[in-house]
Amino acid sequence: MHKFIILIVGLLIVSCGKKLPVIAPNVITEKTLHDTDDPAIWINKNDTSKSIVFGTDKNTEGAIYAFNLNGKVVENKTIRGLKRPNNVDVAYGFQINDSTQVDVIAFTERERKQIRLFSVPDMKPLDKGGFKVFTDATLPETNLPMGIALYKSEKTNKLYAIVGRKTGPKKAYLYQYELTTDSVGVHANLVRKFGEFSGKKEIEAIAVNNKEGIVYYSDEGHCIRKYHAEPSKGDKEIFCFGGEYFKEDIEGIAIAHYPNKSFLIVSNQQAGTFNVFDVKTNAFIKEVNLGTTETDGCDVTTTALGSAFPNGLFVSMNNDKTFFFHDLKKLKLEE
């Protein structure tokens, strides 16, 4: 009887430890110099086949790399000379004067304690060298920005940057800045502090569902936290979920929108996989193995990007200084 029980337990352990089959990438990018971390997809609405994937190279002598859809570095769109850029995000149609709207990328520059804002695709700085963040912090590392997500309100058309940091208090871990313009230029104005923190590890990955006005962030080692992105809707947490499906750290977050359903795709970092959740119900759907290791950041679009990615694109960071590009259909989200 004891031998039978031991056998059953052993089979369960083997079964639970079985590695998922690898879904091979369509493209692996050229290598960065130092340490890849987080990607963001910019969709060229005039010609989606010429869209760009931006990716951070997290180092004291870091950069925001620009890749074409073949994974080749586009040097004249790459921003170098940065001090530990961490996370990056994209937004469309930012009003910079009465007659001009531009697409933008924003990213954190940790060692300079600031966020940066550049127009895309001309890659011109809009921030006069950077916007300082967490300026009221008094404890070590509580003023070092890491995660960032841009939120453009469908209600007010305002653009916000939601920023996380290396460490922080158990309340008001995230700061939200409104990006505004006037005759002098662009400004980042602090409008609220919000977001709980378990204190277990850190908070890095942040993503916003612009369609629903919801912000998600990874409280590593604890759960995925969910809040309203609209400041007027208050700072009360909506939900804390999913922690039981992760081996250790909860990392990069991407949101895939289809006409009838949306999915949250989250890096299960130490397992080398991604967990997929239903956006509406927070329910776990499945786990997929895309062949990456120690993935920090990821991004997704369901928009067809020419003949290279006709079903949309999922981008994930790999621990060998590259990013993996998967045709979104390979993830079988709509099964």
Automatic annotation (TrEMBL):
<dbReference type="InterPro" id="IPR011042">
    <property type="entry name" value="6-blade_b-propeller_TolB-like"/>
</dbReference>
<dbReference type="InterPro" id="IPR003431">
    <property type="entry name" value="B-propeller_Phytase"/>
</dbReference>
<dbReference type="Pfam" id="PF02333">
    <property type="entry name" value="Phytase"/>
</dbReference>
<feature type="domain" description="BPP">
    <location>
        <begin position="13"/>
        <end position="335"/>
    </location>
</feature>
<protein>
    <submittedName>
        <fullName>Phytase</fullName>
    </submittedName>
</protein>
<dbReference type="GO" id="GO:0016158">
    <property type="term" value="F:inositol hexakisphosphate 3-phosphatase activity"/>
</dbReference>
